Amino acid sequence: MTSILSALNISARRMQSQPPIWQATVSGPQYRAVAETVQREGGRLIALWGSDDREHDAVFSVHAALAWHEGMIWMRMQVKESRPIFPNLADIFPVANRMQRAIYDLLGLRADKAGDERQWLRHAAWSADDFPLRQDFISGQNTDNGQDDYPFVKVEGEGVHEIPVGPVHAGIIEPGHFRFSVVGERVLRLEERLGYAHKGIEKRFEAMTLEEGVRLASRISGDSTVAYAFAYSLAVEMATGTMPTSRAEWLRALMLERERIMNHLGDLGALGNDAALAFGLAQFSRLKEDMLRLNQQHFGHRYLMDCIVPGGVARDLDVEGIAAIRIEIDELQRELPTLKLIYDEHAGLQDRFLTTGRIVPELAAKLGLTGLAGRASGQLLDLRVQFPAAPYDQLQVSMTTQSCGDVAARVNVRFDDIAESLRLIGLMLDMMPGGETRVPVNSAGEGKSGIGWVEGWRGEVLIALTTVENNCIHRCHPHDPSWQNWPLLEYAVIGNIVPDFPLINKSFNLSYSGQDL
C-alpha cells in the first residue's frame, strides 16, 4: 500500500493500472488528512466530483483524485442525505473552490465552511432547488429558473471602473464572461464566470452503455478528442478487465502526439496573429491544415474523432499512411526551426511576449497550474515522464520546461513540445508492433470502477466511471486541466493592460466546454 495511506491507517485497493492508482473509502477526517498529507508531499488535487449512490448504498458520495510522486489516490467519502455536507479542501488546494461549488450546483452537497458559496455551473438553466445529477432529477422538466444575478466581487477606489467582456464574443469561440476592474488600461483584477457551455454531459452518460459512452467522451472538448477518448477507453478497460493489444496502445499514443502537434501549431499561429504578425498565422495554419488532411486521408477524420475506442482503435495505419507520416515529420522538422528563429528575432513579437502575463513558479505551485502552462512556469508535470504507461515506458520522453512563466515561455514550450512529439512519432513508426488493433470489451457487471489518466496537449485529462448492470454507466466524471488553469489566468492578467488580455488568454488557450460539461 502507498506510504500515505499506510501512515494514516487507511485500507486501499491497488487498481490494475499503470500509473499506480489506489482506491479507498474514507471518513470525513481521513478525507481531510489525505489531502493535507498529499499537499505536504508536494502533490496536487487532480479532480473533485460527486455521485448519487442512494439507490445502491443509501448515500451520496464525494470523490477526490489526488496525485503525488508515488501515483494517484482515488478516495470516496460517503455523505448522508440528511446532512449533505462534506469537508472543505479549498484551504489546502485552492483549485478545489470551483469544483466544490459545481458539486453543489449539480448534486446539492455543500463544502463545509468553504466561504465562497456562489453558484458556478448553474445560471438560469435550472432552479436553485433542482440538482441535475441526482437520480430523481427529470431531464427537460420545466422549472422556475428565476433571476440570474451573479455577485461579482467589487473593486472600489478612485479611478476604478469595470469592463465586462462576454459571455458572447466577437470571434468564433465558446462563451465565457470576464469582468475587468481597471484604472485606465491597467488591470487591477479579473474575475471570470464560466458555465455558459454546460451541456449536461455527465447526466447524458447515465443512459449509455460503456461502449456507447466513448462517442460522447470524445466530444467533450473538440480540440482534445483523442485525449478524452483515450482516457475514457482506459477507464472502461480497467472496469471490465479488458486488455487492448500492443499495436492498439502504440496507435493510441501516435494519435495523441498528433493531436498535441496540431493544437500547438494552431496556437503558435494565433499567438503570432494576436501580436500583429499575420505571417505567423499563415504559416502555422498551412502546417496544421496539412496534418488535418493527412488525418482525414489515413484515419478517416480530420481531428481523429472516434478513432480510439474501448478495446483498442477503430482505424489502423497501413504502409502508405506510415510513409506519408514520415514525409510529414521530415517537412515539419525542416520548417519549424526557421519559424522559431523568426519568432525569436522579431522585435515586435518579443516585445509583446516577454514579461507579459507572467505566472511565477511559486504561485504556479501554490495554485496548481498544470499542463503546458505549468511547465512554462517551472512545474515538472508530464504523465508521459513521471508515470509512463505503454508505449511511453519504452520511449524515454523528454519533458519540456521553462521558468519565466510569461507568454514567451508558453510559446517556447509549444515549440519544444512539437519537436519532442515529432521525435516520438518517428520512434513509434520504427518500433510499432504488428497484430490486431481491437479486442472485445468484457462485461463489467454492477459496482465496478475504472479511471483513465492521460497527458493531453493542454495537460492532464481524467475520466472516472462506475458501472451498473447490463454494462451501463452509473456515473462518469470527465475532468479537463482547464479547471486548474482558469483561475491562474486571472492572476496572469493583473498589472498588464487590457489590450494584452487576448494574447495572454490565447497563450493559455483553455477549454470552456471541457470544464463546463
Describe the structure.
By secondary structure, the chain is α+β, with helices and mostly antiparallel strands. The chain folds into three domains: 110 residues, Beta Polymerase, domain 2; 68 residues, no CATH class; 282 residues, Cytochrome-c3 Hydrogenase, chain B (Orthogonal Bundle). It is built from 18 helices and 15 strands. The strands form five sheets. The protein has a five-stranded mixed beta sheet with strand order 1-2-5-4-3. A three-stranded antiparallel beta sheet has the order 8-9-10. Strand 6, helix 4 and strand 7 form a beta-alpha-beta unit. Helix 8 runs antiparallel to helix 17, helix 10 packs antiparallel against helix 15 and helix 16 runs antiparallel to helix 17. The longest helix is centred in the middle third of the chain and has 29 residues. The mean pLDDT is 92.
Structural class: alpha+beta
User: Which CATH architecture of the largest domain?
Assistant: Orthogonal Bundle
How many E-type strands?
A: 15
**Number of folding domains?**
3
What fraction of the residues are assigned to beta strands by DSSP? 15-25%
Write out the CATH superfamily name of the largest domain: Cytochrome-c3 Hydrogenase, chain B
For the sheet with most strands, the description reads: 5 strands, mixed
**Overall pLDDT metric:** 92
Strand order of the largest sheet: 1-2-5-4-3
Structure at a glance:
Helices cover 41% and strands 18% of the residues.
